[in-house]
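worker-03 picked up job from queue 'complexes'. Input manifest follows; two sequence lines, order preserved.
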Amino acid sequence: DTEVTQTPKHLVMGMTNKKSLKCEQHMGHRAMYWYKQKAKKPPELMFVYSYEKLSINESVPSRFSPECPNSSLLNLHLHALQPEDSALYLCASSQHPGGSGTGELFFGEGSRLTVL
Amino acid sequence: LAKTTQPISMDSYEGQEVNITCSHNNIATNDYITWYQQFPSQGPRFIIQGYKTKVTNEVASLFIPADRKSSTLSLPRVSLSDTAVYYCLVDSGTASKLTFGTGTRLQVTL
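worker-03 finished. Artifact:
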């Protein structure tokens, strides 16, 4: 199994809603990532979890709250978002977060978020 | 943090070889160079990774000169399905530094 599965594929929410994005991998990877991608722009790194601990938060607003319940699962909790937060949210995993090159990042298909 | 520079776009005809060059002047001794392909509304997909000289796999080759300040992704005999955005990343082995550059939009036509 070499897949990263993201749900839901599409999400529409109002600015007062609370919702969550889910990401799952069963490759035994110990690093998991959240990226945000706007149209025609490269993915931007948001958060990194290494061995289920948050190791990197790239100055992301607190309305985005990541969670890593176990080594296979990564969530992104969303609350009080703004229309400009509408984007494709990508989850990725890699075998380990450090060493001689991080190696291959495995990406999910993404969750397309629209904030009204 | 090694910043990367790539051409914004390239055009090619089907069947031709395409070479996309990435500049990374500030690459550090332990950094690797990695290339990803991305189709619209999909996550990026790993193509190839290298440290120096030449690396080849079933889909591409990666050429890295001795000074490692640039790298070239070579796609042999492209097809229409190779139309995508190609990203070059410098991988320092630190998860926080996996930053994508602007990418190169490759358009392949008949």
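worker-03 released lock.
The interface with chain A takes residues 30-32, 34, 36, 41-46, 49, 51, 87, 91, 93-96, 98-103 of chain B (CB under 8 Å).
Chain B has a mean pLDDT of 91.
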